[in-house]
Design a protein that fits this description.
Elements: E1 17-19, H1 20-28, E2 33-36, E3 39-42, H2 54-58, H3 66-72, H4 75-81, E4 86-91, H5 108-132, H6 140-162, H7 167-192, H8 200-213, H9 219-231, E5 258-260, E6 265-267, H10 271-277, H11 280-289, H12 291-305, H13 312-331, H14 336-348, H15 351-359, H16 375-382, E7 385-387, H17 393-396, H18 402-407, H19 416-430, E8 436-438, H20 439-455, H21 457-475
Parallel strand pairs: 1-4, 7-8
Antiparallel strand pairs: 2-3, 3-4, 5-6
Helix pairs in contact: 5-19, 6-7, 7-8, 7-14, 8-13, 9-12, 11-15, 11-20
Membrane topology: Multi-pass membrane protein
Keywords: Heme, Iron, Lipid metabolism, Membrane, Metal-binding, Oxidoreductase, Transmembrane, Transmembrane helix
Pfam families: Cyt-b5 (PF00173), FA_desaturase (PF00487)
Length: 486
């Protein structure tokens, strides 16, 4: 059992069968019920101990989340841990006695739901085929080569920093360090998804070492937001990865304001947001260059405020080590001007990582098609892959296959390219579009998407002013003229 699992499970008594209508009623009454593999599980007591955070579970309450659970959890979780929370078998809507539509009279919603069930079935068959091809198994030689690349970059950064004698050496050191941070993020990402050793404790240890000790960032913070992102990808109200006001708005839906379920606060499109978003397409790359500084802040806020996080001490120790060795790097530099230049170069040149991350989502759909939409359909609708030559995979870290990664988050990155032909075949079979573009075209798509939203800000402001004026006129009380005394 991992350290975060301090809760002692007690098997819950099985209570027969729960229908779709009963599931809805019980969830509305406050019970935390989810459906996995046609079984109903009550997670009221477990939710606060969930390693991926409470919100990842709350987005699954009251619905069949089999694909999400299978995609994001090791097999042993389903085989050994879930049984402690099972309370009933599930009677799906199609066989629910209370739902017996006459043949030929099904609504569009019911037809859509039936289609999504078929897509989900085909997706599970695809997963089984890829497992049979051993694409979920780790090739440790690939990670050994990656580690040697990281070690080379870090060593060069040290040598050029400590033994450097001129500006060129120091700049080269900062660039090596930036590339080191860029590259280890991919390794930490796989470890965070438990996709390296498939042992939660070992992979978490790898992730903490790379993210906290070597990168100064909290892997726990990343997990909390990233797992939610994988479940509600590109949903304006729920996905923290697209909630970036006052700097970015990737959909006009945010103009009216909304409540962020992740941040638990209202997101308001105020005057500052209106001004900045109007220029967001110009600010995209400069802001990406500043992204790492924001990650420091988010990491510290998480470790200070997050309750029930079992690795808090380990991560705080890791950050303490990071903020010891990095300032030591800076201490070796001859002037304050060089210190400032070193900090900016080493941080700003990690912008490519932030571009790579946002590239796959900022230009994609932000619609909400409801709970009936299948996991596979949602991932392919909201995510773009980036096409590049195989020899360049090392630079993109393998995560240029972001759509495939979203379908199979626990598949090691070095196997994503091999899975691509099967994913394309799957999309053709079920009628889904597989979005893939070259790196340059992908950037153009994101730029155009940001510009389209920016161009509508002025129109929104004018409409808002007009509506406000009409409201004031409608509410104006016109007092009758007082008659003059005769």
């Amino acid at each position: 059992m991992p350290p975060e699992s301090t809760y002692v499970e007690e098997p819950q008594a099985k209570k027969g069968i729960i229908s779709r209508s009963e599931l809805d009623a019980r969830c509305k009454a406050g019970e935390l019920l989810i459906v996995v593999n046609q079984k109903v599980y009550k997670v009221d007591k477990w939710i606060k101990h969930h390693p991926g955070g409470q919100l990842a579970i709350r987005h699954c309450i009251g619905r069949d989340c089999t694909d999400e659970v299978r995609a994001l959890h090791p097999d042993y979780v389903l085989e050994k841990k879930f049984k402690y929370f099972e309370i009933a078998d599930y009677l799906p809507r199609e066989s629910d006695p209370e739902f017996a539509p006459i043949i030929g009279t099904r609504t569009k919603e019911e037809i859509f739901e039936a289609q999504e069930v078929q897509i989900s079935s085909a997706y599970r068959q695809l997963e089984a085929r890829l497992r049979a091809e051993h694409l979920f198994e780790t090739n440790y030689i690939n990670y050994a080569w990656e580690f040697s690349r990281y070690l080379t970059l870090f060593t060069m950064a040290i040598v050029l920093n400590i033994y450097g004698t001129c500006t060129t050496h120091y700049i080269a050191s900062a660039l090596c360090l930036a590339m080191f941070w860029h590259q280890i993020s991919f390794f930490a990402h796989d470890a965070g998804h438990n996709a390296i050793t498939h042992n939660l404790q070992i992979d978490n240890g790898i992730a903490i070492f790379l993210a906290d000790f070597m990168g100064g960032l909290s892997i726990g913070w990343w997990k909390k937001s990233h797992y939610v992102h994988h479940i509600v990808t590109n949903h304006p109200m729920h996905d923290p990865d697209i909630q970036h006001l006052p700097v970015f708005a990737i959909t006009t839906r945010i103009f009216q304001g909304l409540f962020s379920s992740y941040h638990q606060k209202e997101i308001v499109f105020d005057r500052a947001s209106q001004f900045i978003v109007s220029y967001q397409h110009y600010l995209y790359y400069p802001v990406m260059m500043m992204g790492r500084f924001n990650l420091y802040l988010q990491s510290m806020l998480f470790l200070v405020s997050e309750p029930n996080y079992s690795y808090r001490k380990q991560e705080l120790f890791g950050l303490m080590i990071y903020w010891t060795w990095y300032p030591y790097f800076l201490k070796q530099l001859p002037t304050w001007n060089m210190v400032i230049a070193y900090v900016l170069i080493s941080h700003m040149f990690t912008f490519m990582l932030h571009v790579q991350i946002t590239l796959s989502h900022f230009g994609m759909s932000t619609e909400d098609l409801g709970d009936a939409e299948s996991f596979a359909a949602k991932m392919l609708r909201t995510t773009m892959d980036v096409e590049c030559p195989k020899w360049l995979d090392w630079f993109h870290g393998g995560l240029q296959f972001q759509a495939i990664h979203h379908l199979f988050p626990r598949m090691p990155r070095h196997n994503l390219r091999a899975a691509q032909p099967s994913v394309k075949e799957f999309c053709e079979e079920v009628g889904l579009k597989y979005h893939i573009h070259g790196f340059i075209k992908g950037n153009k798509i994101v730029y155009s998407a940001l510009k389209d939203v920016a161009d509508q800000v002025a129109f929104f402001v004018e409409v808002a002013k007009h509506e406000a004026k009409e409201y004031v006129e409608a509410q104006r009380i016109v007092l009758p003229e007082r008659k003059k005394d005769m």
